[in-house]
Write a structure and sequence with these properties.
binds nicotinamide-adenine-dinucleotide, two-stranded parallel ribbon, Rossmann fold, seven-stranded parallel sheet, 8 helices
Length: 253
Amino acid sequence: MKVLILGGNGMLGPWAIRSLEGRHRLRVTDINDAPEGFGHEYVRLDASDLDGVVRAAEGMDVIVNLSVLREDRQLAFDVSTRGNYNMMLAARRHGIRRVVNTGPHFQLAGPQYEEWDFGLNPDMPPAPGTRLYALSKALGQEICRVFSERHGIQVIMLHYYNMKHADTLGVAYERAELHDDLTPFSVAWPDAGDAIRCAVEVPESRLDSSCESFFVFSDLPHDKFLNEKIRRVLGWRPRYQMEPLWNKRVAGG
Ligand SMILES: NC(=O)c1ccc[n+]([C@@H]2O[C@H](COP(=O)([O-])OP(=O)(O)OC[C@H]3O[C@@H](n4cnc5c(N)ncnc54)[C@H](O)[C@@H]3O)[C@@H](O)[C@H]2O)c1
């Protein structure tokens, strides 16, 4: 398939590309310049530029959106909310049947869920709260959902939070700095990239509705969040687990 990637030159982009390349033809876009020696078609593109997004989507089968701007109030909405509107208009204009959108888990499982609840799943009502990043992304996803229902575009939403480098996962606990930011919602970068491929390739017949959300993280010992749905529906399997990071040893113990 021909896959357009928006915001493909950030942290997740290279892992998504690694998982997709060789299987699909990629047109990668980002507001910044291509890395030196980049091996795929590359277009410099601002996701908030409607005409540019429509042009970039021409001839594509799937759009994958990895673009995000987290800090600035105007730009966050331009990229994460208006950018999604542009992406969906472009999909509609060109008859593109599938869009894979991405964002943080807390745009769905906001603070009131995260502090107390267990067994959280990606089909619960979104509760992004008022944080700029979560809210701008949640509104963008809402736009995707409306387009999916009205125009028959299949939207697959992947929720991430905390990515880990696979080569640190087997490291013994003595390197305590590795564990400072351990959150339950963690996944290794290669697995994060593979989830994009699974979303691009899953047959439509496996999806229950035109807009489906998934949590992407490794298996957890406490089931605070559930990854059963992405395993069952997208056929995604985490190759890397977090056990060594959970086994905390007291210093000197
Ligand atoms: N990295 C993480 O830990 C993490 C965690 C949770 C969710 N996510 C989600 O994963 C996706 C990818 O995030 P990432 O980690 O690669 O972020 P990133 O900030 O590294 O990359 C985002 C990319 O978007 C690009 N961008 C910014 N403004 C743009 C614009 N106007 N037009 C086009 N591109 C623009 C940036 O140049 C950058 O390359 C996002 O949807 C993000 O919300 C990431």
